[in-house]
Design a protein that fits this description.
Elements: H1 6-32, E1 35-39, H2 43-54, E2 59-63, H3 66-75, E3 80-84, H4 92-102, E4 108-112, H5 116-123, E5 130-133, H6 138-157
Parallel strand pairs: 1-2, 1-3, 3-4, 4-5
């Protein structure tokens, strides 16, 4: 048999509540670091990327345009954004700029079928983390995403 001091009891409940909240926030951070937002106006490519990333246990959210992506980001946190450069309305460059201003810790990867020299000229003035040139392989996609999500996870731990 053991005694519980009533005075200690409220402190114990507060400590337990704190630990529970802390554990839940760490779990949420871990989920975020495995969540990727795909932005592309091409439904087939979005579905392909979704399937490829799901196969490596990455949670995928998707948007068909930049405005929908920004709306999603106001309600959901993600560990990484992958966006096409050329889309109707707001393009990937502008979307990336807004994301980096609003969520500076979120890596942004641009996908493009454009020529490397065209992209690199514009990249110098932007805060892009990486460019995936189309066509890219599933292995290249998986390696790139894994690399950036690992960096997000390491920053979270520190």
């Amino acid at each position: 048999m053991f005694n519980i001091d009533c005075a200690d009891n409220s402190n114990n409940f507060q400590s337990l509540r704190y630990l529970k909240n802390y554990a839940e926030s760490k779990e949420a951070d871990t989920q975020i670091s495995k969540r990727v937002l795909i932005v592309d106006d091409d439904d087939i490519l979005r579905d392909f990327l979704d399937q490829a990333l799901n196969s490596i246990n990455v949670e995928v959210m998707s948007a068909s345009n930049a405005n929908d992506a920004l709306e999603l980001l106001t309600n959901e946190r993600v560990g990484l954004v992958i966006t096409d450069i050329q889309m109707p309305g707001m393009d990937g460059w502008e979307l990336a700029t807004i994301i980096k201003k609003t969520y500076p810790e979120t890596p942004v990867i641009l996908m493009t079928g454009m020529q490397m020299d065209q992209v690199e000229k514009k990249m110098k003035n932007n805060h892009i983390d990486f460019i995936l040139y189309k066509p890219f392989s599933i292995k290249q996609l998986e390696a790139t995403v894994t690399n950036y999500l690992t960096k997000v996870e390491q920053r979270r731990i520190l």
